Amino acid sequence: MEPTPWTHNTVLLHEAVDALEVQRSGVFVDATFGRGGHSALVLSKLNATSSLIAFDKDPEAVQAAQQIQDPRFSIRHEGFVHLAQLQPASVAGVLMDLGISSPQIDNPARGFSFRFDGPLDMRMDPTRGEPLSAWLQSAEQDKIAQVIREYGEERFAASIAKAIVARRQERGTPQTTAELAQLVAGAVKTRESGQDPATRTFQAFRIFINGELEELQQALEASLNILEPGGKLVVISFHSLEDRIVKQFIAKHSKAPFDRRAPFAVPPEMQLQSLARIKPSDEEIKRNPRSRSAIMRVAQKIAPTSGMNS
What we know:
By secondary structure, this protein is an alpha/beta fold. The chain has 12 helices and 7 strands. Helices cover 39% and strands 15% of the residues. Strand 2 (51-55), helix 3 and strand 3 form a beta-alpha-beta unit. Helix 6 packs across helix 9 (199-209).
């Protein structure tokens, strides 16, 4: 495989692998292989009877993973929603490193970044689905505004959507990242110091085109099913929308809900125990500024107690 100039600095590398406790025997899952930083460290600590299964949508990530010559390792060219295909209660630990990798951002051909001009694509897996430029060509103005507002938390969503549709009617849909970024900059009146006007809009379109939040919800549910008792769930998020979903999921399954309609019924058991919330150190942020927004949450699957005394 030809080396690329785009490198990836794995965020919370040692903290995440330590949280998985890979010294235990079992099957572990790297649900977002990326460029394999977490996987490489996991493999260096696994015992001979354990194994690591990795998932990734990105063909370039899969190509990188296929260079690993280790019989304990396997890679699947699938999004982590396909965790549901693994056997229930068969996995000792699941790691999810969410969001986008540096090679995806830094390669202009992928169309993720407003910092480099490239085709307006944004698909994690360019072999499936439609690029952003194709969706923008026919999407209704209200839908475009909704996506920007909900996934980018952008207060100028309506103005940006209006500008995109006007441009579409006058000269055709934007086809490059530079065209879209320029259009957004003209529609955004004010912006926080140091933040590009296109930041929130590009985040919103990327999340939408890849169905990231919906897939995260499904993958978390699947993880709860495939984890064995005592198994670890480790999730690294990079923006508030992701972290909110992870936080609420762990909280929901870390308490026994009370059913007002059946106050004397035995409540469902807790399924998870929240263990930690960890942020990158000042040293890591200085070394890798892209890590500054990361939050890692750790939870453990609780062994069921019902039926033990029957």
